[in-house]
Amino acid sequence: MASLRAYIGAYMIRSRMRGPLGRARDAAAFRRIFEAPAFPDPKGVTYEPGAVGGVRGEWVRPRSGSGQRMLYIHGGGFIACSPRTHRPVTGALALRGFTIFAPDYRLAPEHPFPAAVEDVVAVWRAFSAEGAACVAGESAGGNLALVLMGEARDHGLSMPWAAALFSPATDFVSEDGSRVTNAWRDAMFDPQALAAIRPMYLGKADPADPRISPIYGDPAGFPPLLFHVGDREILRDDSVRMAERTRAAGVETELTVFPVVSHAWQFAAHILPEARISLDAAAAFLKAHAPKAHASSGSLVP
């Protein structure tokens, strides 16, 4: 059963964001909406600029000591946001025992596909060389996390020990399922918003390319995966179908569909019970699959 705050939060997101996002047609308009301050940065966490693999980003560490290593890939439709805008999520995860690097990967339309993929792979190549790590991301960041795992496997890089994926976009081809049934139920997006973002990221690329739509790739050999998505989201089936595909490939997969919540509800951990539940469950899942050498104390980062 959803909390009263989940209903209130979904109503507020709908009233403030759905209309403007539906009318946005260029990257500048989307960025004004996505990047508007809305949630506080968690306290008890340090935020420091850095670079890994030649890509700038931000280190997020718990003040209480080093945590287990995580690469967090932010969302924003591939066209907006940054590590700074995602501190409500990365800070909340740091407080749950992770030391995080969040890359400031290149954004479309200035840098369309495959720029973001190239950046996160470059980061992972260097980050994973320093020690075992997990991966997490939401929305576009969840997409890039899944693509990263396929690229790491195919190029002989170390794999994450596990991944937490919050409402990942996994399919740029299909236009059925929840993209139709939730077209009016989704508190944040309507189909017009996604249709406007799509060509900015793809450029002339094939939307069925597994590096764009990981649901059309082969997930064999992926580490344990956790999917969290909202029942009312347009992107609900992106998680549901991807989870079905990974399970069929023998990948340990955990899927939870949350009622009522809006897209990227994890941002509201300071006020929303469902956000805390999601982040707590993701942290527990990732820690449960950590290599034994890292399970209790974590490892230091550069």
Which helices and strands, and how do they pair?
Elements: H1 4-23, H2 27-34, E1 45-52, E2 55-62, E3 68-73, H3 87-95, E4 98-103, H4 115-129, E5 134-138, H5 140-154, E6 163-166, H6 178-181, H7 191-202, E7 225-230, H8 236-248, E8 253-258, H9 273-288, H10 292-295
Parallel strand pairs: 3-4, 3-5, 5-6, 6-7, 7-8
Antiparallel strand pairs: 1-2, 2-4
Question: What would your notes on this structure say?
Answer:
The chain is of the alpha/beta class. The protein is 38% helix and 16% strand. The chain has 10 helices and 8 strands. The protein has helices at 4-23, 27-34, 87-95, 115-129, 140-154, 178-181, 191-202, 236-248, 273-288, 292-295; strands at residues 45-52, 55-62, 68-73, 98-103, 134-138, 163-166, 225-230, 253-258. It has an 8-stranded mixed sheet with strand order 1-2-4-3-5-6-7-8, sandwiched between helices. Strand 7 (225-230), helix 8 (236-248) and strand 8 form a beta-alpha-beta unit. Helix 4 packs across helix 5. The chain is globular and about 45 Å long. Mean pLDDT is 95; it is low at 296-302.
Give a short synopsis of this structure:
The chain has 302 residues and is an alpha/beta fold. It has ten helices and eight strands.
Helix content: 25-40%
* Poorly predicted segments: 296-302
Arithmetic mean pLDDT: 95
Strand and helix order: HHEEEHEHEHEHHEHEHH
Strand arrangement in the largest pleated sheet: 1-2-4-3-5-6-7-8
**Overall outline:** globular
Number of helices: 10
Strand content: 15-25%
Q: Span from first to last CA?
A: 43 Å
How many beta-strand runs? Answer: 8
The rounded Rg comes to: 17 Å
Structural class: alpha/beta
The main pleated sheet reads as: 8 strands, mixed
